[in-house]
């Protein structure tokens, strides 16, 4: 008769591990919880940042990445430079430029809720003269009311940016330069031109007529053919101000937007680190549970040895148990992380995105942790001599 | 003894089921539990190893059950020299040729009678369905056909020991070792368990009972009295 030990089938092994966990369900759940929290934290961090990025991508796709803005920098002597009045017309001559528009800052001019507010309490809102085609070029939309038109841009009428409207309150008119200006509309948040959010916008002619505006544009907004954006960028400064191209700043707001979101990456790294610590603590918890389990189940180990289990089979049984425990935590944690991501993304009106690699690495990490945590207790269980194991009651 | 039975269970008959020759067991620390013991047990026997605690009978069980190896001498079980077998092969020998019954039953509390018995066959290599079929047959054989789905806590002490016996014989091993099988039972349940062992023996299984109880031992066909690590 051949004395070769029979192999345990995988299904039998899995069932065996399951019995072990089910015999102490509360302990299994609690020790799996540590792993679950770690995996949930890491999944949620990556998921939330991926969702935010997906949202940004969607927004940028909608807004377009072909907008370039031109603004005066500082002169060689450190003074605030201005753009020549002709710069708008000059930029229009650049071939791939599809549209050009501008705003002009009215320096030392402030908007107030009413005429009784002391002049010093200006509220930090800027007063800008705007060209009529501003809204189309920057991709702005109206919350309510109307944009300036050929009639209202000659008269004391203003459109408020979203932040400006919040600060001033729901007023029918604002007080600027000793005169009441009717509020004709309120803008939504303008993502590519956030400076408009805290602005009070009026017509170019009205600003000139009533507030003595000098007519110098301070920000020129352009849209170009998508494939030519970089080429346009290169020639914008010398075109806007041929005499002093160095004092012109050209920027691409979509890049700035993406960069601002990217700065969250350091925060993400911190949270990921915390998740990793939770995972490590969870792994130690599993190892601890397994060590105790082996101590408590000496007589079971002895019985199995008497029934013909080899050392290897005892070892495999306990590693399997640890793996199942860890996987249980990992699966629950991944689910939890997904739900947290979904909830957060919904409140932010983002799409819910949890990359597949995150779920895959969550499973991979838990398998690794389970195997590592279970190995030492399993080896101890296998080393136990059958007679010694059976002697304990 | 029924001669037919002897022929059936010992087809090769060239060797006894248990053969101990000059077996000495010394534990680390210098305690000698067995001193030069000789014992031969043929297929189909029913015998008791009887002695007070400290007489070496538990050590004897461990050696005969291949759970431990002798310090000196040879142990042959079912024709295999234990000293020549690796731990893996010894495990396989136990899985197929030896059944154990313990004083403390060692039943898994979370599994019903059928599960406990079927799990005992886990290391024989049989598929699950076959393990369960044999487990049910074994439970019917020990008179627990109506208790298949009962958990250990729902069974009396005598019934638990019957489950343990069913587990030990479900794989049809030629050798059954029972360590104080009635030690935790009242006299009525104890008598029932001994009756069951006798039935199993009549059906062909070699049974070695280890006990300190002379009364139980004297009811069996053969007694091996032990004292201070020696057969007396």
Structural account:
The complex is a heterodimer of chains A (393) and B (232). Chain A has 393 residues and is of the alpha+beta class. Chain A has two domains: 10-60 and 262-391, no CATH class; 66-252, no CATH class. Chain A is built from 13 helices and eleven strands. Chain A has helices at residues 10-22, 25-63, 87-92, 134-138, 162-168, 204-211, 229-240, 253-262, 264-296, 298-306, 311-347, 356-383, 386-391; strands at 67-72, 97-105, 111-112, 126-130, 142-145, 157-160, 173-176, 179-187, 199-203, 219-224, 248-251. In chain A, strand 7 and strand 8 (179-187) form a beta hairpin. In chain A, helix 2 crosses helix 11 (311-347). The longest helix of chain A has 39 residues, at 25-63. Chain A starts with 9 loop residues before the first helix and ends with a helix. In chain B, strands 6-7-8-3-9-10 form a six-stranded mixed sheet, with helices on both faces. Residues 1-11 of chain B have low confidence and may be disordered. The chains are: A alpha+beta (393), B alpha/beta (232). Chains A and B meet through helix 1, helix 10, helix 11 and helix 13 of A and helix 3 of B.
The chain-level mean pLDDT of chain A equals 84
Specify the oligomeric state.
heterodimer
Distance between the termini of chain B: 24 Å
Relative strand content of chain A: 5-15%
Outline of chain A, from the CA principal axes? elongated
- Residue windows where pLDDT falls under 50 for at least 5 positions of chain B: 1-11
Q: Encode the helix/strand succession of chain A as letters.
A: HHEHEEEHEEHEEEHEHEHHHHHH
| CATH fold title of chain B | Rossmann fold
Please count the helical segments of chain A. Answer: 13
Overall radius of gyration of chain A: 34 Å
Task: List how many beta strands of chain B DSSP finds.
Answer: 10
* Quantity of strands of chain A, as a count: 11
Count of individual domains of chain B:
1
